[in-house]
Design brief:
Oligomer: single chain
Strand content: 15-25%
Order of helices and strands: HEEHHEHHEHHHEHHEEEEHHE
Radius of gyration: 21 Å
Largest sheet: 10 strands, mixed
Structural class: alpha/beta
Shape: globular
Number of strands: 10
Helix content: 40-55%
């Protein structure tokens, strides 16, 4: 059986055990999120799979299960190396020796469906091919993190609860509940349904609901892990990024000090003024110029396939959501939070003075875009 399939089967079994513990009331402590290295894919891409944990779940059972998966991964990788199945990865690194080594954590969103697993395998393979990273480097950098399938509620509603837990607390401090906040109220509306499922009026938008909560989940997870910067990639996002991956860390290192987010797709849509450029390499080693643009002008694009966030991004966005709620996540971030707005509801007017953005017409976030398009 494929190592990824074995790992996911064990991970899902653990998830069900944890959920049962929570349901039965034996786990009174609040849930926390931990990441565990449990899988490999295609015989050469080792990844980490993020799972929920509960304070009183026995660590011995978890350790034994993960240890068995790890041993199987090591056995398969060693066997295939000896058989010459692993392709040589040094070729792509040879032309990029002057590029900074990738050290920014990458979170890949996986819903866990059969189709999504296929996308994830392709994405990890493309990451290897585009970046020249070794399996060991991929294992240390990549976390395959749960997405949120809103059509499966209430079965995975605990993921959505985790995604908004800090925003819920902040809203309460502001004298509000999630039921008063656009889009964030969807989870609590579902909880009011007799079957706990997504309300009928939201089902035609179930994909967008799940997408929003999936990205909120990653932001909360990155915050709890105390990361200063991290990349978020949807299951098909590696192929959608037009920034060569050998130039990714350099682009991250050259993000301005005020940067909250860096987009790496959207092709020749600049989004704002050019602020930096350098001579880099494409995926095939061809010399290419790399451009870094400010993203503060309305641009007709969609999707959040690949982007880098900072800790200030999470702080600002969660503060905003606790007052104003959210929307379809891509159009909301790209077309509202990043751009100079004309609607006061999409700017800090009405929110009072804050430490990060005074009232006015400035964008909520300082956004940038790295691309080889000029």
């Amino acid at each position: 059986m494929d190592s990824l399939a074995i790992a996911k089967r064990r991970a899902r079994a653990e998830h069900e055990t944890i959920r049962a513990e929570t349901t039965s009331g034996r786990a009174k402590a609040s849930s926390r999120f931990t990441a565990a290295a449990i899988g490999a894919t295609l015989g050469f891409c080792a990844v980490a799979y993020a799972m929920f944990d509960v304070a009183d779940v026995k660590n011995a059972v978890r350790t034994a299960a993960l240890g068995a998966v790890k041993r199987e991964v090591e056995r398969r990788v060693t066997k295939e190396r000896r058989a010459g199945v692993l392709p040589g990865l040094g070729g792509q690194k040879a032309f990029a020796r002057d590029a900074p080594a990738m050290r920014t954590p990458i979170f890949m969103i996986s819903v866990g469906t059969t189709g999504d697993d296929a996308h994830m395998k392709m994405s990890l393979e493309k990451l290897r091919d585009r970046s020249g990273l070794t399996p060991e480097e991929i294992a240390s950098l990549v976390t395959v993190s749960p997405g949120v399938d809103a059509t499966a509620w209430p079965n995975n509603a605990n993921l959505a609860d985790f995604a908004v837990k800090d925003v819920r607390k902040m809203a309460k401090e502001n004298g509000k509940t999630l039921m008063e906040l656009p889009w964030l109220q969807i989870l609590d509306l579902a909880k009011q349904q007799p079957d706990g499922k997504l309300p009928t009026e939201w089902r035609r938008l179930s994909h967008h609901v799940g997408c929003l909560y999936a990205h909120l989940f990653q932001w909360q997870l990155i915050k709890e892990k105390g990361l200063k910067k991290a990349m978020i990639v949807e299951s098909d996002g590696v192929g959608a990024s037009d920034l060569p991956f050998v130039e990714l860390q350099r682009a991250i290192d050259r993000m301005p000090a005020d940067a909250d987010v860096l987009f790496t797709s959207f092709g020749n849509f600049h989004g704002g003024d050019l602020i930096d450029q350098w001579n880099g390499h494409g995926d095939d080693g061809t010399p290419v110029p790399v451009h870094l643009y400010k993203w503060d002008q309305f641009t007709p694009v969609a999707g959040l396939q690949a982007y880098v966030i900072t800790d200030s991004f999470v702080r600002k966005v969660q503060e905003f959501m606790s007052h104003k709620g959210a929307d379809m996540v891509d159009a909301w971030l790209i077309g509202k939070m990043c751009v100079v707005g004309k609607d006061k509801d999409w700017n800090m007017r009405g929110l009072g003075e804050t430490q990060f953005m005074p009232p006015g017409s400035k964008p909520i976030l300082n956004c940038y875009h790295a691309t080889t398009w000029s």
